[in-house]
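Changelog note: in this version the structure field was regenerated for every chain. One regenerated record is shown below for reference.
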Amino acid sequence: MFYQRNIKSYLLEAAKDTPVLLLNGARQTGKSTLLEDLQHDFKDTFQLISLDDLTVLDSIRKTPQSYLAGLTARHIIIDEVQHAPELFLPLKQVVDRNRLPGRFFLTGSANVLTLPKLADTLAGRMEIITLWPLSQGELHAHKEDFIKLIFSDKPIPVFKPVQIQKLLETIVLGGYPEVVQRKNRDRTAGWFKAYITSVLQRELRELSDIEGLAILPGLLMLIASRTGGLLNTSDLSRSLSIPNATLNRYMHLLEAVYLTVRLPPWYKNIGKRIVKSPRLYLSDTGILCHLLNFDAQYLFANRQQLGAVLENFVFMELMKQSGWSKSQVRFYHYRTHTGQEVDLLLECGLNVVGIEIKAASTITQDHFKGLRHLANELGERFKRGIVLYTGDQTVSFGERLWAVPISALWQAD
């Protein structure tokens, strides 16, 4: 089944003024499929080069300048470009000779920002765009933009609620295109198992020459069990019996292949001391639930575990939407030494929106405690405070404070 990707329009716009576009993201998120679809919007010819082809890869590694010189199509797609870092400098030279917009479309399953000097080589010539697994709007053929709504001056509208069982099934399934098309849970479990093994054994070994990668499955499992919690590297290193320096290297590798995502703390322009540890999430709740052996029934019966998984789900849905939203936002979490905290803080220019995520069907004033504290700290910069919950009513809880059904995430446009 083909899914229209909401970030496509952004790619088309970027191709009008940028010579090199890098579509980054985990394997199996649909990067190649998106670029195939993109070709229908161009009149010119495309040429596809896959660096998963070992013959092509060997030729490029030996003579990258000659290989690029032989390419004549108006648009070139180079798939899995992280396999050939030798290409980046010759690519820069080609672009500098002729800065045709939209000439090169690159895809990568590893974040090039983590690869030495690669991003710097094409600085000012390349735009990096991340493709995450399918968003809920993409699954329902809708271009959602909850971010635009919450930073607008419009009142929060009423949204159609989602049944809790349906929501839990959605969370457990995740957003990988191959998985959402499988109806049999045993078959989805098999896919996740093979996928995680492939990424940890193949992708990471190609990215790094360090030994001891056998510990990575255990590290990923440990991160999953603590999703949304403050990152404590000392505690993790003790649990795994590895040095802190080694742990940090492994953590960056997991981020490089888009299995984990770091949420930094908010501390800018706030006079009081704020805890500066990031929070850590998995990039897909399907992988998260597979690792922890959670199904919808288990999450329904265990609301404490559901709370952490739901927070992961909301964060990643908003991360996906930030790729196509015209509201350019940055994500943080907020936590003080006195215990005041807000799950998500979105910053757009001078404006800030705080979001709390609650696995509850009813909301009270107590759920807004952290948001009120944040509003007092920020003053006029505080645009809105929102509690996303599993209930069915959109309710005002005072000036700039709202309780909103979680379904608003994919219904707002």
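Spot check on this record: Residues 144 and 413 are 5 Å apart (CA to CA). The chain has two domains: 8-130, 136-411.
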